[in-house]
Please model this.
Amino acid sequence: MHIGRRLASQSAVIFAARLFGAGLTFLAQAAIARMLGSVVLGEYLLIMATVNLVAVVMPLGFETVGTYFAAEYRAKGEGRLLRGFMVRAYGHIAAATIVLFLLGFRIAGYFGEPGKVFTMHWLPACLLAFATAMIFVNASLLIGLRRPYAGYFADSLFRPVAIIAAFLIGLSASTPEQGFNILIWGVAIGFVAIAFGQLFVLLRTVGDVPTEVVPRPSEWRRWWRFAMPWVLISLASDFFFDIDLLVLSNQLGREELAIFGVCTRVFSLVAFGVAAVYSVTLPDMFESEAKSDRNGFYLKVGDANLVASALAVLLFFIVAIGAPIALLLFGPAFAAGAAPLAVLCLALVVRSVFGPSSLVLSIHDRPNAALPAILLGVASLIIGNMVLVPRFGLMGAAVSALLAITLWSVAQWVTVLRIAKVDVSIRARLLRPRADAMPKPAE
Model:
């Protein structure tokens, strides 16, 4: 099957599963807003945003490069190195969980509103962070081992099911406050069960990777060289809007924060469909680069960009048309988020057009080179919020995010072009003939 068709088909299945799960989450959040109030929904979104940011730091970046190293070790049949990588990753989570339980409560109070909300639900929030970190590592390794469905479905399907099940149980409580506590505890217990179920699948998959006859020394230095910059890369990219919500929590009221939080969750769903395209093609990109098949590498990056960009444009129009109706499920006040949500989705088109710059830098062993562009994006986001949000409210927050993502994407594209001599934008694929039609270099 041509890689473009395979990407489209696999990405469609993954995105359909995510869409179904997001629909459950969307309905659960709408029910929280309707039955418990938009203020409670704002607190729930703050807890989940804080949990995500804590969880992505706990493995110390190993979840962000797990796909890369799992794909490499699978391709080379180096099962011992793969297992060593896993021991390190899960060891980091275990150590970070202990530190969080022992010291985190005292530190959380210094982080303003997010820390205050987190400490109000300390034990379930810590369990949520532990389970979420486990799921992040499990998923990245499974994707690298060519098990994208097993990697994505835990987050796409099972976590939303756990959320809505916990909410339904919480409806039996006598007061909204008790119902909210049951919800948080139920989600935490559900996430822990999902994490260990996914780990069981991962261990069975890893057992199929052959072990090298002559084992190589541990590559822990190389793991750290990749992982440390990817902590910041992942925080600023995958959890860009979680950071934004925490920053905005001191600028917007709880109701406005809930509206913008719902918009960012819809955006994350849309962005997932595009990210799935690049995740599916990562093992193929790595193999082409490892074999010095530059034509094949260009073809796979280019096809991924075409599929991702077309999907981003399609999803933008779907969101622009459907958002005003969908947001009414949360209440009349949430209709104010329709226009800001459309602006956010334009950012996804920008990201797709400029291509997977950070990923290509890692393949070329230069992950650190992505950091200046990331810092530029985060700095512009903070400055944009300070300038635009007080005057324009929700629309100012959306425009600030669009400008930050645009600056970031352009800066990373220029970085890859300068360092790796590779144009990863869609422009290169449109101008370059198909790799399989290019003449072979003279011997």
